[in-house]
Each structure stands twice: as C-alpha cells, then as structure tokens.
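Sequence dictates fold. Below is an illustrative record:

_____
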Amino acid sequence: METKNELRRVMRGRRRAVSAAGRGAFSSAICRNILARPDVQKAMTDQDVFAVYLASEDEIDLGDLIAALKQKGVPVAAPRWNGELYTLAQLDIGDLQEGPHHILEPREDNPVAPETVAVWILPGLAFTQTGKRLGYGGGWYDRFLALASPTALTLGVAYPFQVVEDLPSESHDRMICDIITVEIGKDTK
C-alpha cells in the first residue's frame, strides 16, 4: 500500500486535472445528493448546525449546499484560522476573508463548538467505503471530529476517483459515516 504522502501527491494531481466545467458539474450534483438525503433534510428542518468547508480551487465546491442551508435559515459554521489553529466560526457568506492557505474563511470569530454540530461535510484527498478518510496532513478535521458529538452525521465529498479500496490509517484518524460522490459523463473531466 502506498504511504499517506504518496497518496496525497497522486490525488492532488488527479484533482488538478479535473476541468473547471467538470468541477462545477460534480459540485452541483454532489450538493443535490447531500440535500436529497433524508437525514440531512431532517437536520435542516430541525435547524441543526451544519459544518462545511469553503473550497480551494481543486475541491468540490459546496456553494449550492451553503446557499440552500442559508435560505432555510439553518446555522452554518466553517473553519477559521485564529493565528494558532483552526476553529469553527459562524459562516456569513457576505463577510469572508482569505485565510493563510488562500482559502476563504469567516472574517469574524463567532465561535461554534464542534460538539454542537449535527452534520459535518468534510473535504479529503481519498476515502474508503468503510469510512476511512485521507486528509491533507494537518489533522485539523481529526481534531474537530474528536470533539464532535458521537451522533453527528459525517459526510465526505469526493470525485469518484477519490474513493479507493483501502487507506493507511493511524489511531488518531477519525472515521466518517458516508461518502457523497457521483458518476458523471467523461465530458466533465
């Protein structure tokens, strides 16, 4: 099995190879799939807290999902760098700033406790059907999920090629509940 760093390099390259049109098609379809899930619909109806990420240019873009959540008045949080580590902050789409990794983040530090989040939408470089997730190497989401409610729904989002048979894992790696991906025609690549 490849090492985590080898897999990260390969998956970053494959993600960069997805065209802007392909990324848009995958992102829209994945957001629709998330919104169609009965457990997500219930969490929205209950006005439960959702934690999302704001995408880099290679990641699945959650813009459609965030817009739908905001339209329903659902509380949404996103990672924000506080100078030492990432925390969760209330997401106000109209008030974002570029963070240290050139990814947008909430400007204001309106903290959201990880244990209050009911639904986590997680980025990653690779996932398995059994719930393993390969992140970017900083362990930020593993730290968030270590504080999360044991009943929280954790959903990874991925291009189909990011779903692999197995991944190396360590004791601090957190498992996720499910992966949301879609198969789209070759013209989207």
